[in-house]
Each structure stands twice: as structure tokens, then as C-alpha cells.
Write a structure and sequence with these properties.
The chain is about 50% helix and about 15% strand. The chain is an alpha/beta fold. The protein has a single domain, classed as Rossmann fold (3-Layer(aba) Sandwich), CATH 3.40.50.720. The chain has a seven-stranded parallel sheet with strand order 3-2-1-4-5-6-7, with helices on both faces. Helix 1 (about 15-25) packs across helix 9 (about 215-225), helix 3 runs parallel beside helix 4 (about 100-130) and helix 4 (about 100-130) runs parallel beside helix 6 (about 150-170). The longest helix is centred in the middle third of the chain and has 29 residues, at about 100-130. Bound molecules: 1,4-dihydronicotinamide adenine dinucleotide. InterPro entries: KR_dom, NAD(P)-bd_dom_sf, Sc_DH/Rdtase_CS, SDR, SDR_fam. This is SDR family oxidoreductase. Belongs to the short-chain dehydrogenases/reductases (SDR) family.
């Protein structure tokens, strides 16, 4: 399987790190399916499709196991295989533990952790059948270190890391690899929503003295998809924040 024949799926790909990853992979792959929660606007889609004719969009909520499985099956039915999965879809509902509602705790777990499992399970099954494939889950440095106001998010991303290491062990017998990236502070809608004070504080803790770009996470994801002897790893992409 050469890179030119590869078929990839990136979840939560409408913007941010997911969209940058779609573009990175589309420049070398046969086909990239971008999963979106809501369809792109006609203008957004026209611009993307003009630049990358080998990209298609698939609308599904990764938090719904049935939709996730149907999506993976549809890709395999159309393209005959699935070589790489990037589990990128994620949300935040920040609040101190004392004020966090059970609903907000569960909503974040449902998308970030259960959603990752929902897509990973049918993809792993297909890749094991092929005896080839690679999965990259998007975790976070918060999943390794915790953060004030992000108990739900930290728990979900810590779970993603445990899931990654387990999938790596289960997939290895059939040459399926599974790794994670743990981004630090990346300039996307997710970090734009943070209060200015929080962003300034975060910046002061980054030795490289800037937030990362989505494209910089995308190149790390691409590396993990391609590197044939790496599995079960968590690659931190954080400008030295957690060194
Ligand atoms: P973003 O908010 O720009 O993108 C998240 C995407 O996930 C959106 O396109 C959204 O529609 C999609 N999504 C949400 N729920 C979904 C669902 N149920 N089904 C399908 N798609 C869904 O955020 P960003 O920053 O690009 O985040 C991407 C990933 O990177 C997330 O998993 C996030 O937790 C992670 N991350 C981001 C960091 C940052 O600093 N921006 C740092 C560490 C991790």
C-alpha cells in the first residue's frame, strides 16, 4: 500500500486541527473523508473541493455509535478500504468541579471519549481484516496534567490515552498501529473561546512563546500515521509547555 492509494477518515474536520489534517493528508492520499457534525456551507465546500477534489464530507455525530459505525462501513463500501483514522472531534464545557453539572461532565465524555471509541471500534475491525492500518487519536496535554476548570475534558482526554494504548496492544497482532497526539495551546475556535486572562497565562508558560498552529499538529498526526514502527505512543505538540 503506497501513500497515493491510501484512504483516510478525519473526524470533527470542519475547522481547526481537523481541517488542517484533512488538507495535509489530501495532498498525498487517494481519498480523505472529512467527518463533520453539520455540513459545511456551500461556499466553504466549493472552495475546499476546488483545491482538493479527493476530499468528501460525511455528516455524522461521533457520539452516536450507530452513526459512527455506519460512516465507517459506508467508506469501506465506497473505497474498498480504510488505511488511516484520525479521531479529532472534541468539545469543551469548562467549569470548576464544584459547579460542574453531571450533564456537562457526561456531554464532554460522550463526544471526546465515547465518540473516539465509537469510530475506533469499526475502524479497528476493518484494519485488522486488512492486516494494515493506523489510528491517531487527538488527546491533549490536559489529559496528562489536568487543568483548573477542565475536569470533564481532562478525564475524557486521559481516557483517550488509555484507549490508545489498549488499541495499540490489541491491533498489533494484525499490524494495526494506534498512537495519540497531545497538543498544548493551538490557535483554533476552541482556544479563541477562552478568556483573555487565561490565554495570557497559558502563553507565559510556553517556552517557544507562541500558541501552535493547527498545521503543526497536522504534520505530527501525519508523521504518526506514516511511521511504521511507532505504536502506543503519545506525541506532545506543545511548544515545550510540559517539558
Ligand atoms: P474546534 O472546535 O475548532 O474543532 C472541533 C471540531 O469537532 C469541530 O469541527 C466540531 O464540529 C467537531 N465536533 C464536535 N462534536 C462533534 C461530534 N459529536 N461529531 C462530530 N464532530 C464533532 O477545535 P480544535 O481546537 O480544532 O480541536 C480539535 C481537537 O484537538 C479536539 O479533540 C480538541 O480537544 C483537541 N485539542 C485542541 C487543543 C487546542 O489548543 N485547540 C489542545 C489540545 C487538544
Amino acid at each position: 500500500m503506497t501513500s497515493k492509494q491510501a484512504v483516510y477518515l478525519v473526524t470533527g474536520a470542519a475547522k481547526g486541527i481537523g481541517l488542517a489534517t484533512v488538507k495535509q493528508l489530501a495532498s498525498r492520499a487517494k481519498h480523505v473523508v472529512m467527518n463533520v457534525h453539520r455540513p459545511l456551507s456551500d461556499d466553504q465546500w466549493a472552495a475546499l473541493a476546488a483545491q482538493f477534489p479527493n476530499v468528501s464530507q460525511y455528516v455524522a455525530d461521533v457520539g452516536d455509535a450507530g452513526q459512527a459505525e455506519t460512516m465507517v462501513k459506508a467508506i469501506v463500501a465506497e473505497h474498498g478500504r480504510l488505511d488511516g483514522l484520525v479521531n479529532n472531534a472534541g468539545i469543551t464545557r469548562d467549569q470548576l468541579i464544584m459547579r460542574m453539572s453531571p450533564a456537562d461532565f457526561m456531554t464532554v465524555l460522550q463526544t471526546n471519549l465515547v465518540g473516539t471509541f465509537n469510530v475506533l471500534k469499526p475502524a479497528l475491525k476493518q484494519m485488522q481484516r486488512q492486516r494494515n492500518g493506523a489510528i491517531v487519536n487527538v488527546a491533549s496535554v490536559i489529559g496528562c496534567h489536568g487543568n483548573v476548570g477542565q475536569a470533564n475534558y481532562a478525564a475524557s482526554k486521559a481516557g483517550v490515552i488509555g484507549l490508545t494504548k489498549t488499541a495499540a496492544k490489541e491491533g498489533a497482532r494484525r499490524q494495526v498501529r494506534c498512537n495519540a497526539v497531545a497538543p498544548g495551546m493551538i490557535t483554533t475556535a476552541m482556544t479563541a473561546a477562552l478568556p483573555e486572562k487565561v490565554r495570557e497565562q497559558a502563553l507565559s508558560e510556553i517556552p517557544l512563546n507562541r500558541f501552535g498552529r493547527p498545521e503543526e499538529v497536522a504534520t505530527a498526526i501525519d508523521f504518526l500515521l506514516r511511521q511504521p514502527y511507532l505504536t502506543g505512543q503519545v506525541l506532545t505538540v506543545d511548544g515545550g509547555m510540559m517539558v
